[in-house]
Amino acid sequence: MKARETQAPAPLSFEAQILALLPQLRRYSRSLTRSDVEGEDLLQDCVEKALVSRSQWRGANFKSWAYRIMTNLHLNARRSVARRPSVGIEEAENVAMSAVSDDPLEKSRLVKALETLPKEARAVLMLVVVEGHSYQEVADMLDVPIGTVMSRLSRARQALREKMREENVIPMRRPR
Predict the structure, then answer these.
(1) Record: fold of 96-169
(2) How far apart are CA 35 and CA 21, in angstroms?
(3) In this model, does residue 148 exceed pLDDT 90?
(4) DSSP category for residue 59
(5) Going by C-beta distance under 8 Å and a sequence separation of 6 or more, which residues neighbour residue 117?
(6) CATH architecture for residues 12-94
(7) CA-CA-CA-CA dihedral for 36, 47, 27, 151, to nearest 10
(8) Quick one: which of 86, 24, 79, 61 has its CA closest to 137?
(9) What is the pLDDT of residues 25-50, one digit of tens each?
(10) Whose CA is closest to 14, among 73, 67, 58, 68?
(11) pTM of the predicted structure, to 2 decimals
(12) What is the C-alpha separation between 73 and 80, in angstroms, rounded?
């Protein structure tokens, strides 16, 4: 019986690892695409690519491998769009939007500020701040040096602070 107690738990199957990672991949895909619909498409493409490419996974770090697949798919899609630009339905003028939030003005300001960030800085910010990954994990996922992750994160935070400060509501009282 003691031999059983000391045994490590069996590693998760490939499919179980994908299922466990889905919520994180979904948030990351939405942060990359800035759209729920496109984010879901990217997530589906990522999972499909991971399943098809399962033989290429070396067993080292599944999370990093899956994030790298998603990042590459997103970059490839952006390059494709840049070669063949089109107008999306989001640009329709008379579409009503419903947004429920505690403070819609603050949320809107934050979304606009995030959209002004370069895509590389936004990706690092989302992975570190929202997803809670370490600098080293993000460096592995994005295939960049750890110093690049730290500098992109620092610049992204500073840019967000400045943008949010710029658009701050003017106080009603004048300083005395």
Answers:
(1) Arc Repressor Mutant, subunit A (1.10.10)
(2) 20
(3) yes
(4) S
(5) 125, 156, 159, 160
(6) Orthogonal Bundle (1.10)
(7) -120
(8) 61
(9) 999 999 998 888 899 999 999 999 99
(10) 58
(11) 0.50
(12) 11
For the cut 80, the answer to whether the pLDDT of residue 66 exceeds it is yes
Write out pLDDT tens, residues 107-121: 777 888 888 899 899
**Tokens in use for 148?**
């690049």
Token pair 């500020």 is at which residue? 113
Give the span between the Cα atoms of 132 and 18, in whole angstroms: 18
Q: How distant, in Å, are the alpha carbons of 29, 110, 146, 162 from that of 106?
A: 23, 6, 32, 15
Domain range summary for the chain, segments of one domain joined by +: 12-94, 96-169
Q: How many CB atoms lie within 10 A of CB 137?
A: 19
Report the Cα 162 to chain-centroid distance in Å: 22
Residues 135 and 146 sit within 8 Å (Cβ to Cβ): yes
Tell whether the torsion through CA atoms of 162, 110, 84 and 89 is positive or negative.
negative
d(C-alpha 117, C-alpha 23), whole Å: 24
With 0-12 CB in 10 A as exposed, 13-18 as middle and 19+ as buried, what is 126?
buried
Residue 85 vs residue 166, higher pLDDT: 166
Work out the mean pLDDT of the chain and round it to a whole number: 80
